[in-house]
Each structure stands twice: as structure tokens, then as C-alpha cells.
Amino acid sequence: MKLEISPEKCTGCWLCAAVCSARLAGEFNPSKSAVHVESLLPEKIVIRPYVCIQCDEHPCVESCPVEAIVEDKELGIYVVDKELCTGCGACIEVCPYNGLRLDPAENTAIKCDVCRGKPRCVEICPENVLSMVEER
Amino acid sequence: MLGGYVGKILRVDLTSGKTSSENLNLKWARLFIGGKGLGAKYLYEEAKPGADPLSPDNVLVLMTGPLTGTTAPCAPKYAIFTKSPLTGTYLDSYMGGYFGAELKFAGFDGLIIKGKAKKPVYLWISDGKAEIKDTKGLQGLDTHETEKRIREELNDKEVKVASIGPAGENLVRTACITVDLYRQAGRGGAGAVMGSKNLKAIAIRGHGGVSVPNIEEFIEVCKEITKNDVLTEANLWAKTDGTPCFLPMTQEGGILPTRNFQMGVFEHATDIDSDAVKKIRVRRRACYGCPLGCGNLTQVKEGPFAGTIIEGPEYETLALAGSNCYINDLAAISRFNILCDKLGLDTISTGDAVAFAMECYEKGIITKKDTNGLELTFGNVKAYVEMPKLIAHRKAIGDVLAEGVKRAAEKIGKGADRFAVQVKGLEYPGYEPRGSVGMALAYATSDRGACHMRAWPANVEVFGGGDPFTTEGKAQLVINDQDLYCAKWSLVVCDFYAIKYENIARLASAATGWKLSVDDMTVIGERVWNLTRMFNVREGFTRKDDTLPHRIAKEPLKGGKADGRVVKPEDFNKMLDEYYRLRGWDKEGRPTKEKLKELNLA
User: Fold this and answer.
1) Domain with A98 in it: what CATH number?
2) Which residues of chain A register pLDDT less than 70?
3) What is the dihedral of CA B437, B442, B444, B446, to 10 degrees?
4) Of A82, B452, B497, B531, which one's alpha carbon is 20 to 30 angstroms from that of B90?
5) What pLDDT is stored for residue A78 in this prediction?
6) If contacts are CB pairs under 8 Å, which of residues 9-68 in chain A contact chain B?
7) Residue ranges in chain B whose pLDDT is less than 70
8) Under CATH, which number does the domain B433-598 receive?
9) Partners of residue B219 in chain A, C-beta under 8 Å
10) Which residues of B200-236 are buried (b: 16+ CB within 10 A; e: fewer)?
């Protein structure tokens, strides 16, 4: 399973990040969300979310010096093992999709785990920017 | 567990350069919730009665609500509170965007700013800390450039910035605060108050969170309300069109301000209506947590203003800076709009001021000597797009108009006050009362001068098939709106979600953990309205200030459904008498002791 993004529809409401952080951190806190919104205004009319799309290449896995990004075989996705992660940021640097983030408080990488099957961001997005694809 | 609030208020004394953090007053929070109510309470307690609004004695309060930063639908807003330099009254002005949520993520529910910095500064708030920083080269820059430079200096592209442009620095009384590029605290001159304090900007970045008692339950309540009460017929206009959809409606109702309120219809309305805006719309933009997303990001594609990108124009801009100036060139309105956003001017008051100046010019009261050589006739695009610059920089007639139309008319003389359309100094917004008589009362009794966001009887009497000309029942209609809006702006929920008390109470309860009923929220609404009235009473405002402008009372409207009509002073006074009586206020418009006691205000 993985997420797909239709960036042209995004209005930049951040609801995706708000519900994501509620699950990951138990509070509304976009800086602890796996999904993140960026805008290029006022120069360009571009607003879009960034989130891990569970790409086939997964350079993040190879980049990690402590092998903290591990495969969840049951779901067929790669997730961060927070116990192992040292917060070095190598995965964030190497990701071509701008899909990972650093939790500033815990100093660990945040990587989407598709809510283990029922992604909240997909459900709440009022513009259907995010969708889930079952196969990979 | 008490939720919604982050529990801290940041206090800033610009004179001494000291900042401190204090606990949110929870007793006040229970009585006034947040946003409008709590901001008004802090302002009322902190303000020095009779203070000059542009002196260090004036106070700026910024307040979020318990929903700010959460997943509550349409709750991105927060407001700035001060004594208005335009009206001398209580002022609150609401902003959208992301800044309010960021303030809570940075650990504060609100700010209290006093004094005056010795030299221009900006306030930098980050994760529970605050710092007053030298503006260095920021003085004189427009708001977009200011935002950009501050982000560069702080080396964080996610910093949220509220700033003033040259207009605020030059103490233009209609100066706004621009936030997140395209969102403004537009009305009443809060930008000039920042300018008077040498405060160029407020920058915020936070990595903290907002908690509620049961976050899963809270999200479910939000989802249910979004589905059944937000994404419904009553609100979907905001998603499909945004505010430009009001233009065909006011045109149809004959209440579209045209030629400085001489007419109620605009023959070129279709050039600037919702369909016209859609033609230049690239995509939509939403504020934090809003499933409606009313902002139209537009780009002018051709002509002299090609390339202009704005979020807008909104209805009020199309009306006051469009038809009211007899401008039917949407690209020119976009240009005027971006100039106002960047220079830091309210598009409503500025549109009205330009329309007023156009009438002065056509009547020969002012000439090219006053206008820097501009041929300032109605509809002249070339002169029109120069006016925001003259006003913001206080050049030529712009220096006079920078004082607002009330003071400008006094200065110009020669009967100009007869067509300066304002209440308490705040210029009229986009709903002509001669074709919507309840609006005359709404504007007269609004706590910040002529404002359409305190009560909106046009929605019933014009758009809702009511009788727009009868005075019958209008006082109660205005009161109901004022109280309801006070309640919703205390959460803070946006104007564009037509929320009722039931869901106001549900959202407030789910966020705070207090059991707040419909009755509780109704009383809170009335309490807040009486509090802002008490601020104005303390400043010396009485019935004599709850006025009907000369033009509306004496000059028959031209064109449309209300052609030939005025709002008769005797009809207006009848509504006002009834309004005071129903409010429990005396004949001078002062809340009685009994009323204040009943509302826990005395």
C-alpha cells in the first residue's frame, strides 16, 4: 500500500498534517506530522503536500547508517524504528520526494506508515489530494 | 483536563524592551471563551481610558481561541484588539491564514503589546520565548518583502509573519496588518497602531501542540460537523466561488455601492462578478484547517497589469474598490488590491476614500493641484491605480485621505461631509442600506463603526426574500446576529461557516472539556456584545454617535430595486429606540446596571 498525491488540487489547509499529528503525537502539532504542506507563493501559485509515497527505490533505507528504516513485511512498506533512529537526517537528505521529516522534539525521523492501512489524511482531505493505492 | 488553550499569554513592553509570559486568566476564559470575547476583556482591562490610539498608551491584544490549531472546521481565525485610530472606538479585526495556529504551536494563546520601541523593531516569538529584534533594513518595505526578508534572516521558511507596510509606518488611519501574504486585519487601522509603536512585524514559529481532552472524540465531532453542517448548501458558495458570488446578488437586490454610494446598481457588474473572477482563477487557497477554502488565487494574464498574483479580489474589494469607484476593469482592481495588500491598506476604506475623492474631483472641490496631476474621475483606471501609493505615502490628496473620509471631509470642507459615507469614521462596506434598511441599524450600532460583520440583515431582508424596506423586526434581527457572531468569534469560527449555537456549543465543549450548552453560548454572545459597548461608553460614545450618514438619509438612491429611496431619519430612530429597548440599554444607548449585572459584567 502507498499514498498518491494529486498536488494541483491542494488548497493548503493542513488538515492532513493536523490529523496525522493527532495519531503520531496525541496532539495537534504539524511539526510532528508525517505529511507536510509547502507553498511557493507569492512567486508561484504552487501549494502541495509532501509525504512518503513508499517508492520502489527507497534510497532512505540504504542511506541510514544504523539501519533504522526497516521493512514491515505484513504491510509491504518501510517504516522507521524509532528505537534505532539517531536523527542524523541522512534519509531526509536523500529522499527525492521530500517525504521524510525530523521530529524536532524527539530528534527522530518521521516517515508515513499509511496509518497501517487506513490513512487519516486521505479520509480528511477535503480536496481529495491524497489517495491510497493498495498495490505496490 | 482543560483543553483547547495552551495556557499562556505573552506580554510585551516595547518601551522597556521586556517580555514576559503569564498564565491565561481561566476565569475570564470561562466567561468569554477566546477570540472576540477574551480579546475584548483583556483590552478592556489593559487599556487606559481616553488614551490617544496612536500613543504608547494604546494597547494591542492578539487573541486566538480554543479551536485555533485544531481540526475544527473553518476555525483558523484570531483577532487583533485595540482602540482604533480611525474611529476612537473598540476595534477588533480578524485574520485568516496560518499565523494564529502557529502562535499556539509556539505556546501562546494571545499577546499583549504595550508602549513604543525607541527605533523600529519586530517581535520574534519562538517556542515559548520572545525577542525584540532590530528591523535593520526593513523600514519602508512592503509586506511581502518584509515577510520574505524576515524568513531569510531567521533562516526558516516556515516562519509566519504579520507585518505592516509603508501605510502603517506612516500612520495612515486605514492601515491594515497583512499576514501570510494575502490575509489582512483590514478594518479600523490596527496597522497604524503597530506603526505608532515602531513595531514593523511579528514573526512566529512553534513546534509545540494543542491538546484537547479526548482527541479521537474531538476529531469525530469535527468530521461529523464538517459533513453535516459545513459542506452543505448554506456554505458551499465559499468553496465553489468565494465571496465574489455576492456581487450578482447585491446587484440584483440593488444594494451594490456604485459611484460613491450614489447608485445601487452597476451597469458593468458582469465585468467584475464571480464568473469574471473565475476566469482568472488559477486555484483555491484555504486557511489552516478549513475544508471550504474560499480564497481565489488569481493571476492577471494580459494587459498592463499582467502577472499580478493575488488571493482575491474578495466581494468587498470588488464593490468598494470596483463599482463604488466605477471601475469595471478586473485587472485594475487586482492591481489596486495587491497594492493595498503590500502597502498595508484596507481595501474597503481605501476603495471608499478613492470613490469619495473622485466625487470631490468631479464636483470641482479638489483639482489636479491636489491630485498630483491625476485626472481623478470615476472609472479612470490610470488615476485609480495610483491612489493607494499616494495614500500610503501620504502624498498630495493622499495625505488627506489617509485620515479616512470623515476627517478628510472635515479638512476639505465645502460640503464634502454630505457624501463621506461612514459611521464613527469607519467607511461603509458593500451593502447599501437604502435597499436593505436593517443594514443602516447594523452599521450604526456596530462596535467598530460601519461594519457588515457584526450583523448582516441583508442576508434575510434582501437575499432571503424578506422585506428590505420595512423597519419592522429589524432591531431584533440585528441583535440576534450580533450575539450569534460574538459567540462564534469567541471560538473563533470563520464568518463563512453559517454555524448556529448548537454546534458552537458542541465544538467549544469538545475542545475545552467544559460542558457548554446552547444557553451558555447565547449568554456569552450577549455578554461580549455588551462588553464592547461598555468599552465605547467608557470612551464617551453614546446615541449621538450611532448615526445614519447624510447621503443615506437625504439623497434618493439611483437605479435598481431601491431606486428613489432613502432611509428616513424617523424610521432609523424608531429602529434605534427599539434596538436599545430590546438590548436593555437606556435611551442614550448605555447598558443599564441591571443588564450588566445579569450578564456578569458588573
Assistant:
1) 3.30.70.20
2) 135-136
3) -170
4) B497
5) 97
6) 9, 11-15, 18-19, 21-22, 25-32, 41-42, 45, 47
7) 1
8) 1.10.599.10
9) 19, 22
10) bbbbbbbbbbbbbbebeebbebbbebbeebbeeeebe
